[in-house]
Amino acid sequence: MFRHILHSFSRRPALAPALVNNARILAQPRRFTHWQSASERLDKEGVTIPIEPSEYRQILARTKQVWPCPRALPPGWSCKWEDWAYLLTFYWLSPYYLMLPQIEMVVNIRHRIPGETRPILFSNERQAFVFTLVDSPRQFFLFDGAGSVLYRVAGISNEQALVQLMTQGDDAFQAKLQLVPPDEEGEEALMRILARDATVIPLLAEKFLDYTPVPTKQWEEGNLPVDEEFPMEEFLQDLQGLEEMEKEHKLQSTQDGFDLEGLPGEEEGRAEIPERMEEDDDDDDDDELHPIEQALDNIDNMEDVEELMKLARQEEETRKTSTRGH
Question: Cβ neighbours of residue 19 under 8 Å, at least 6 residues apart?
Fold first, then answer.
């Protein structure tokens, strides 16, 4: 499962365009104006990989928990993450083979810098953001999105000093920037990813990432060629497997005593449980979901999958009927 703010969200298959009521969620990549906020981009254009509004809201809530703002902000920089135009670009699934978040493709693979990143500040106008490493918080970097260039901030060992330096102006800040060249083997690995070379997976797990990526298919990535028919049968098979998995989760949740369906006041109960659990958040491991929260998530996912299976079968029947008519 992904690190960063994504660690609590399950990875779901991309939906067939014909099965999605809200088509903008599957909009293809577009050239965005740099001043658009992440929320504006999601509202107007959507993102290549499907993301439900509820998940998007959870991501924003998660960023506020794990990406704290500095006490003071340099002019022209912000930490209001819902306004960051490239939040979903870097910290959501990418539309490439393996669907790795682009922050991992840039930092962990292309520049071979290990570890999880934590953004500190961003500037939509500059198309840049400053970040540190969770396990090495005395290192600071600037990624220039306009030129796809990574810099290390030299001579700075804490966040307060970083902010003070940036407050002095661009000239003082730029004087401390040292270019971080791409790693040759990392760039080669990226080319193999773009070429859909599955043999790169063991290399990524061994040398660049702390997990083994899962192979993906073009329809999952939202990149099916326009002249290629959507693989409906393959999609249904994958969806059937997901349905069976969700049924097992639901059965296990019921056996564990967390099945809330059918109980009086079910919706009210669902709303109250997260509020009660918030009181214990400080004592819980961030990487683990509360059992009741997990059970509710399983139930909700089950409902989504059942509806998706129904739509998929309807679409397949329509396609077969149309084929017979010709």
Answer: 308, 311, 312, 315
Closest by CA to 128, choosing from 146, 103, 151, is 146
User: What's the one-letter identity of residue 150?
Assistant: L
Answer yes or no: are the C-beta atoms of 153 and 176 closer than 8 Å. yes
Token digits for 150? 């990574």
140 vs 177: CA distance, rounded Å: 10
User: Rounded CA gap, 157 and 151, in Å?
Assistant: 15
Query: Which structure tokens are listed for 141?
Result: 């970097």
* 260-300 residue pLDDT tens: 444 444 444 444 444 444 444 554 444 444 444 444 454 44
CA distances, 97 to each of 10, 35, 172, 194, 214 (Å) = 18, 29, 40, 6, 9
- Average pLDDT taken over every residue of the chain: 73
pLDDT digits (tens, 9 = 90+) for 296-321: 454 445 455 556 666 666 666 666 66
- Give the whole-angstrom CA distance, residue 101 versus residue 90: 6
Over the range 33-47, which residues count as b (16 or more CB within 10 Å of their CB) and which as e? eeebbbbebbeebbb
Please name the residue ranges forming H helices in the chain. Answer: 38-44, 53-66, 87-91, 102-103, 159-167, 170-174, 184-194, 200-203, 218-221, 232-255, 266-278, 291-325
- How do the residues of the chain divide into helix, strand and coil, expressed in percent and rounded to 5? 50, 10, 40
